[in-house]
Structure formats: structure tokens, C-alpha cells
């Protein structure tokens, strides 16, 4: 398995390229920006992009998705509960003082339970609302890897003060859907350092008091 995670854009969103040397297939998670670099990495590994999965419709995660789709033909998957956020991309761009990227409705709804990924590495979509209403995590079960978007970070959790955010809901999502995973599960969050479910269960200050 090829697994590369690198920060992209102004807010340093973690973008991940996940591929398979044998089949030449790849998926990209959260292509927020730096599309030329993502295309370079795909080319360097000789991979064909099969799928673009976006954990939620904040500009720093979804901003490059349409450009990447146009360059590769790969479909975009996003949870439909984030369509209102996608529609307010100009407002999101104004928060950052940047130009709004082109956006388009997803090709498929990344709904709860959907299986995404490439033929040799598949993940289950966990709908984990709270940071946004359409926030999802991707759980690669045999690989024991969770892509947590902006729901869970090393030592922190996603902010809930933006439109669509809900502080009680994000804690419920984390406790019910993520803390039920095995301690050794690697967590690759939407920003910052990698962690594990066990480390967060033990030490994340936001998770110590149950609602
Ligand atoms: Zn976000």
C-alpha cells in the first residue's frame, strides 16, 4: 500500500494519497488545494486516480476537488448533508480572504455505511456529524486506519462554531462511533499530527467528561 499524507493550502489540510503498487489504483482524500502537487505524486507512483473522497465541505478540504476531477476523471464523493456548505463557498472564501474555488455537487453521496476506496483497500464511511452536518470519517478495517477529517485531532476535536456545527453532536459522534474502535487504530486527522484511538481515549482533554 502506498500511503502519503501531506498538508495543502493556507490552512494546511492533510491531503492523503492512498494507492496500490500492484493494481495501479489510487484514491485521494481531502484535496483541499495544491492540485499540481497531488497530480505529480500520482504520476511519480504511476497511479491512476479512481476516487476523490472529501470528509466535509469546508473550503480547505474540498477546494481542489473539482480541479482534480477535471484532470483525472475521478468521481467526487461527499456526504449530502454538507450541500448547504458547498453552496456557500463564496462565503467560506471570504472568511479566509481568498477567491472561491470552483465547486460542483458530488457524483455520489458518501452516506453512512458506504464502502469507498480502491479494489485492494476499502473503507467504511462513518457519518460523524458535529463539526459539520455532513462530516464523515473513513475506516479502513483490516488496515486499522481511520481518516478522521476535522472530527477528531491529536489532543483536540473539531471546532463547532461555524455554520452547521454542533458541540454536543460532535462529542456524541466521537464517543459512539470512534471510541468504539480498537486502541491500536491509527488516526490520520484533517489537520496536524497522526495519533491513535488509544492515545485519544487516554489523553484527549475534550473526551474525559461524557455528556
Ligand atoms: Zn473543517
Describe the fold and architecture.
The chain has 7 helices and 14 strands. The protein is an alpha/beta fold and 211 residues long. A 6-stranded mixed sheet has the order 1-2-3-4-5-6, covered by helices on one side. The structure holds zinc ion. The site of zinc ion (ZN) has 4 residues, from loops.
Rounded to the nearest angstrom, the radius of gyration is: 16 Å
Tally of separate helices: 7
Helix content: 25-40%
Morphology call:
globular
The CA-CA distance between the termini, in Å, is 39 Å
Please list the strands of the largest sheet in the order they lie side by side: 1-2-3-4-5-6
Helices and strands: which structural class? alpha/beta
- Unreliable runs: none
The hetero compounds bound to this protein are: zinc ion
Secondary structure layout plus pairing:
Layout: E1 2-8, E2 13-19, E3 25-29, H1 35-44, E4 48-53, H2 59-62, H3 65-72, E5 76-78, H4 83-87, H5 89-96, E6 108-109, E7 115-118, E8 121-127, E9 136-140, E10 145-149, E11 152-153, E12 156-157, H6 167-178, E13 186-189, E14 195-196, H7 197-203
Parallel strand pairs: 3-4, 4-5, 5-6, 10-13
Antiparallel strand pairs: 1-2, 2-3, 7-8, 8-9, 9-10, 11-12, 13-14
Quick overview of this protein structure:
Helix content is 26%, strand content 29%.
Give the key terms.
211 residues, alpha/beta, six-stranded mixed β-sheet, 7 helices, globular, binds zinc ion
